[in-house]
Amino acid sequence: MTESADAERTWCLSEVDIFRDLSEAEMDAIAAAAPMKTYAAGEILHSPQQPGEVLFILKRGRVRIFRVSAEGRALTTAIISPGTIFGEMALLGQRMYDNFAEALDDVTVCVMSRADVQKFLLSDARIAARITEILGRRLADLEQRLSDSVFKSVPQRIATTLTTLARRADTPAGRLRPGTRHPQITLTHEQLAALAGTSRETTTKVLHAFADRGLLRLARGRITVLDPARLLDEAG
Known about the structure:
Elements (H helix, E strand, L loop, with lengths): L2 H8 L13 H9 L3 E4 L4 E3 L7 E7 L2 E6 L5 E7 L3 E5 L11 E4 L3 E7 H9 L2 H27 L2 H14 L16 E2 L3 H8 L3 H13 L3 E4 L2 E4 L2 H7 L2
Helix pairs in contact: 5-6, 5-8, 6-7
């Protein structure tokens, strides 16, 4: 295999936190067991109807994990950022149960089977410890989201979601684009409504109210946070 082909194969694993400090040979072995797949924004990567265990390593884009109530209301349980993992993997104590995984952007993932997770990830104490840390943080995030859905108003939930996305340095939303001074969040009003657990119409109304007060600037498919401190206050 040529050097360029090797680099292409291991690209999906580079800069992924759980694989830091692995040797080139170790990275090559894992990459061979984790083929790359792409999904367009809006596509479902995982649904409750899909059988079998699979672990996704997210390289590019953002993924929303959500469940749907009997009444049809969607509750977002996690927003997955590049450089981390998700999926149905009882071996890791990680279960999707009745959750869906949806691409918020065009997404690139590498996919591993149960056998390969056991062989390459859990057998390495460094990687296993990092996976445990990631899943612990995700559980804390889920508890916060469930609390927000019960105790916070819709404007507070929208402000919380925007603040969370704008703060994440490991996501496109958290990085300042060249020539800009403010974090820009790439989301449609419909996507933001799904994340905040409300309707698109209500989300649009709240966003325009925030924009009128100078907290945000709105453009098609993009929200620029002009005053992060005041937006954080609005999040409660």
